[in-house]
Structures are given as C-alpha cells and as structure tokens.
Design brief:
The chain is an alpha/beta fold. It has one domain: SPOUT methyltransferase, trefoil knot domain (Alpha/beta knot, 3-Layer(aba) Sandwich), CATH 3.40.1280.10. Helix content is 33%, strand content 12%. The strands form two sheets. Strands 4-3-5 form a three-stranded parallel β-sheet, with helices on both faces. Helix 1 links the parallel strand 1 and strand 2. Helix 2 runs parallel beside helix 3. The longest helix has 15 residues. It is globular, with a radius of gyration of 15 Å.
C-alpha cells in the first residue's frame, strides 16, 4: 500500500490556502506549503525517510467547482471516495476495501458548500475523531491507520 498520487486543490504557486469556490467566497492566508517546489521537496524527504523510490504524481487544480463537478467523479469511479471532515459523521474505517480516494480539507474542514459538493461527487463523509487536525497530521494519521 502506498500513495500513488496527490491532487492538491489549490492554485500553485500563487495559492490562497483555499482555492476559489464558485459558491461562498473565503479568504485565507498565502499557503507556501502548496507551492510546487515545496511539495516536491517534501515528497523527496518522505521517500528518503521511507526508503521508497516511487515519487507520487502531484496534480494541481485551480478552481473548486470545475474540479469537484467535472474531474472528481471520474477520479472516484470504481474507487471508494472518503471525505475526512470534522463533525458528527461515522468513524473513518480502520481498513480499506480496494483503491481509495481520500479528500482532506484545510484545518477545521471544508465549508458546508464544499462538503455538499464533495458528497454529490461521490465522497462518503467520515470523522477522524473529536479533535481538529492539521492537514499533514490528518494525512499521517490516516496512512498510518491503513498501512
């Protein structure tokens, strides 16, 4: 098991921290961690630490609505789509059944409009527990659970 690819939903390299939605507007600080060079460096560090040799593909998506309505259903097709989001949702499964697409939002989760769009695209909403996790901690927590 491993990560075959990542698809950060944010502009790169001029990211706003959240990518613009076609629904409610949000303003977040600049997100330098999503710049292509930074992501590449993090991936290389992760490969060195895990002694792996396969660099995951990273695809950036500039706008939420076209991504979630036009691309995400095709990405999820024949896979399980999980939306990790804080709130009163069923707990995230301890094991996976086949290929899984994992959607993790910014710290504190997606806004309600985004959650509804992701659910409409085929994602099942699950909880990681009562605490709000930073994105990098949520990813590590989930991958550690499923390894």
């Amino acid at each position: 098991m491993g990560v075959a690819g990542q698809q950060p939903a944010a502009e790169a390299p001029q990211s706003s921290g959240r990518f613009p939605t076609d629904g409610p507007k949000t303003q977040q600080p600049h997100a330098p961690a999503l710049q292509a060079d930074t992501v590449h460096d993090y991936l290389l560090q992760g490969l060195q630490q895990s002694r792996d040799t396969i660099l995951p593909a990273v695809h950036y998506h500039r706008r939420f609505k076209p991504f979630v309505q036009d691309l995400l259903p095709g990405i999820i097709a024949a896979r399980q789509g999980l939306l990790a989001h804080p709130g009163d949702f069923p707990p995230c499964p301890a094991t996976l059944q086949g290929d899984t697409v994992l959607v993790i939002g910014p710290e504190g989760g997606f806004i309600p409009y985004e959650v509804a769009q992701l659910q409409a695209a085929g994602c099942r909403t699950v909880s990681l527990g009562p605490r709000i996790l930073r994105v990098e901690n949520a990813v590590c927590s989930l991958l550690g659970r499923w390894q």
